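Students often ask why we bother encoding 3D structure as a string. The short answer is that it lets us treat folding as translation between two languages. Here is a chain of 254 residues written in the first language.
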Amino acid sequence: MLGDAAASPNTDGPTTDVSPGRCPHMLDRMRTMANLLVVEDDDTIGGLLSSGLRSQGHAVRWSRSGRGALRDAAAGDFDLVLLDLGLPDLDGVEVCRQLRAAQPACVLVILTARDAPSDRVKGLDLGADDYLAKPFDLGEFEARIRALNRRGQGLPDPTLSMGALVLNRSSAEAWVNGRRIDLRRREFAVLEALLIRQGKLILRERLITEIFGDDDPVTPNALEVQITRVRRKLKGSGVEIQSVRNLGYLLSAR
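And here it is in the second language, the structure alphabet:
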């Protein structure tokens, strides 16, 4: 079921050089590098969901509690929230209501083992876009999101820009002054995370989780290595990555 549906990870190989105006968009928008929040207290299910979605190129934040999910929702912008109603600390229906208030533009999908139709009705009435009952296949989840996209509930424009920098989340490419810059998978993830929150501080620990995941072993200077590489490639863009000592990083105009 869930664990068998993960797709092959992205590669770091070179891609064909094209201008931003002619950059091909992928037909399946679930292949975009979306920013997802998974709210699931079960370690097995949460781990499989997070690793499966990351392997398809998505940035995933995994919260194991209702309070943690609300903190994450207040601190960042998410394209999609997958919410388990059976949380250990807060009522899932109330978390659904507060998440919708905190993230009004995101796609919100309820995940639960509850069979009572009333729970589904409550969740949908409080702003959820769809409902998935456990167990489910990751492919089924993707199909539900594609259906939401067709109904106009889809993810935002994949193009992000600042100064002379343009980044396309669908094709995983970036340009400076119309010239494509070569970015490896994690370099792109660093730049995307900073560009989504341009001008805002991202804590170092949060950036490490988004770039490397919860399960990947991370050396002490792994993030700094990626930041240094991206800085070199941003020359001439009018954009710079600023370090905030002992806290994190932010992307700003020069």
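Translate back mentally: Confidence is low (pLDDT under 50) at residues 3-33. Keep this in mind for the problem set.
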